[in-house]
Amino acid sequence: MGALLRVENLSRTFGGLAALRNLSFEVEQGRIVGLIGPNGAGKTTAFNLISGTMRPSAGRIWFRDVDITGGPPSRVVALGLARTFQHTSIYPSASVRDNVYRGAIARLGTSMFDQLRGGAKTRAGLARVEAQVDEVLEIMGLEAQRDSLAGALSYGQQKRLGVAIGLATRPSLLLLDEPAAGLNPEESAEFGRLLRNVRERLDLTLLLVEHHMALVMDLCERIVVLVQGERIAEDTPAAISRDPAVIEAYLGAQEDDHARG
Amino acid sequence: MPTPSVTAPGLPTAGRPGAAGKVLLPLVGIAAIGPFFLSNPFYIHLAILTCLNVVPVTGLSLIARTGQLSFGHGAFVGLGAYGAVVAGIKLGWPFWLAAITGTVIACLCALALGWVILRLRGVYFVLVTFAFAELVRLVMLDWPSLTGGANGITGIPAAELFGFAFDTRHRFYGLALACAVAALAFALRLSRTPTGHGFDAVEQNAALAEASGLNVHRIQVRAFVLGCGIAGFAGALLAHYVGFVSPESFNLSLSISAIVMLVIGGRHSVWGPLIGALILTPLPELFRAAVNTQHIFYGAALILILRFLPDGLASLPARLRRAAGRN
Questions:
Q1: Smallest Cβ distance to B208: which of A93, A146, A165?
Q2: Which of A96, A199, B37, B145 is most buried (CB neighbours < 10 A)?
Q3: pTM score, two decimals?
Q4: Are residues A75 and A100 in the same domain?
Q5: Which chain B residues have a beta carbon less than 8 Å from that of A77?
Q6: Which domain holds residue A111?
Q7: Nearest Cβ partner of B195 from A51, A89, A115?
Q8: Do residues A62 and A138 share a domain?
Q9: Which segments of A140-236 does DSSP mark as H helices, in order?
Q10: Alpha carbon distance A88, A84 (integer Å)
């Protein structure tokens, strides 16, 4: 049994443009791994490929030694790999509790007929689901908002709810796409503590894409650096922050960003 | 079964009636008994048609709950009607078996069609369901040995269950009412199961639903098959009430009136189909003298509702409550 997640020679082109070229990396069980890089480096593309939302042009993805290349996402989630979205993705017109509940019901595994009948299996399953919903709401600090409309939550609370929905699917690996985007430094540090706590309590492995360098350096145990679709470095945060190639790519790319406006 | 749902107050997705519903539902219940004591055959006829509309519109509401709009719902009513009539007349099967046959035929067609086309989104799905409905109509027209062609099939006997014939209007109303109540009860029950929550999840955010482990395609196919099966069952009932089927009975205008009833009644409420059918079945009949104004009325009502009350009349009580709370 190797790493929890193995990405091998992953490539994806859009038209003639290579968004991702020969990306390979591994995520060990229990780790917090960061995927960083300037805008357009292919981080979100990598997430879309791993979660099965998108098919790679080439390469393979292994999760728990099962080939999950090309999804579909619902199957990948069933195996225990869930994701959150860069732009907060919730069900705004449903209650917070129902949002989390909808994340948990895929694991119920009883037929529609048993559910309609209110059969014993469904009742037992629903009791488990309820307990999970309560646990996730408590972990993410959303108990007080339980009956509020999700769309009425503050931005920070909606970000936490997005993670809560992902947690409700009971993943062993959670992909977080810019969990701290749009949060101020204190909120972002708070989010980091929250994620570490989540990892401890749920025995989780985390892979995150993030722009907040302070958060990434503080939280992650390993970092993979992508530049223009290619991996240029993979190491511990301390080593990454000293890596001349990374520093140059980053500063260069930032200048590019400014030039593009 | 413990109710698996706690919903925020005033939610349009809520299946349970609010304060206004608690007053209105018993009224509707009492009104539903009324036709048994009416002697004017026209009013009983309207009551029967209302029930026969509640059933297929409830079916359509299940499809709409997963975020899809079918423009071919009338064709599935037709498939159920023809399936039941052919099984009843050509094969001599009893009514209950013929009705099940019609329902199953509608389900199978929906499964085959849905499996292929439910990957289409929005307007493409609408267009393909529309094209399918035309196809069904043409098959009915051009297969006279089975369907009687343009003349249709006449002389369909009255429905009969366990030796009891529903051969008077009053008796048939009893059957139609029972079926309408059953359809609504099914939709209400379903909306409270995890499967029903899955439908809502797909409608409100399909990408998130898929990322939560819900197989969006399978859920939409399931809703489509259920909704079309209910439409097929309604067709079997309708054929045995009217006593006659023809391809023109199940044309586009039937699909459109089902959509109009659903939208005006309320797409996101279990009670929407009931409200839509209660209001829109009798109204056009009262304006019968000016047949052409019917469509103008439909169009105007649809525009007004979509503009001012997008969740239909079913959302009115919650709206009023919120407006009252603000003042």
A1: A165
A2: A96
A3: 0.87
A4: no
A5: 211-213
A6: 96-170
A7: A115
A8: no
A9: 155-168, 185-202, 213-219
A10: 8
